[in-house]
Amino acid sequence: FIYYIIGVIMNYFKSIKERDPAYHNFLFAILFYPGIKALFIYKIAHFFYKMHFFFLAFLLTSFCKHHYQIEIHPGAKIGKNLFIDHGFGVVIGQTSIIGNNVTIYHGVTLGANKNTKEKRHPTIEDNVIIGCHAVILGNIRVGKNAKIGANATVLHNVNENEIIKGPQAN
Predict the structure, then answer these.
(1) Rounded to the nearest 5°, which phi and psi values hold at 49?
(2) 167 within 8 A of 150, measured Cβ to Cβ
(3) Is pLDDT larger for residue 87 or for residue 50?
(4) Looking at residue 44, what DSSP letter applies?
(5) Which H or E element spans position 18?
(6) Buried/exposed code over 5-21 (b: 16+ C-beta within 10 A; e: otherwise)
(7) Of 75, 1, 88, 12, nearest to 42 (Cα)?
(8) Under DSSP, is residue 141 helix (H, G, I), strand (E, B) or coil?
(9) DSSP single-letter state for residue 147
């Protein structure tokens, strides 16, 4: 079991090194990458959420929100190797589903566009890159290997390998 956990951790940091040219080493990342800390706290909160210890789950989420300015609802489902780069202002809603090897930059919102009990947040498939301050709203799907540009607002499904641009500067 210990070897499995060590393997998962090493694979995670290897995936960050491949996606972040500023990566120095394991210790540097643990100390100075708020996205890693937020994801670690989310995993504990998600465990408590699944066990119906909602107070503890939301206490951890609140701690993370106030200390790192990253809010990940403990009910969200997140795959392997999510990398939240910089992280400040990231919001991931309750019914969001995030696949493997997804990269999210600062200011991204995975939010809802209606107030119902059903799934109301996006599903992000594997290997997606979401640029800073992008907003993805509603029960929509972003296909594998898609790229969402900075400041884009996405309200409809995105196909695999599709690139969605944000507003263009003149």
Answers:
(1) -60, -45
(2) no
(3) 50
(4) H
(5) helix 2-19
(6) eeeeeeebbebbeeeee
(7) 75
(8) strand
(9) E
pLDDT of 169 reads 56
Please give the helix or strand (H or E) that residue 92 lies within, else none: strand 90-92
Whole-number Å distance between alpha carbons of 97 and 87:
18
CA end-to-end span of the chain: 55
Alpha helix (H) residue ranges in 20-160: 26-32, 34-50, 54-68
Quote the CA–CA distance of 71 and 7 in Å, as a whole number: 27
Tokens of residue 24, six digits: 């120095």
Which two three-digit tokens encode residue 119? Answer: 């799934």
Band of the pLDDT at 116, cuts 50, 70, 90? confident
Q: What type of residue sits at position 126?
A: D
pLDDT confidence band for 155 (50 / 70 / 90): very high
Say which residue the tokens 């989310």 belong to: 42
pTM above 0.85, yes or no: yes
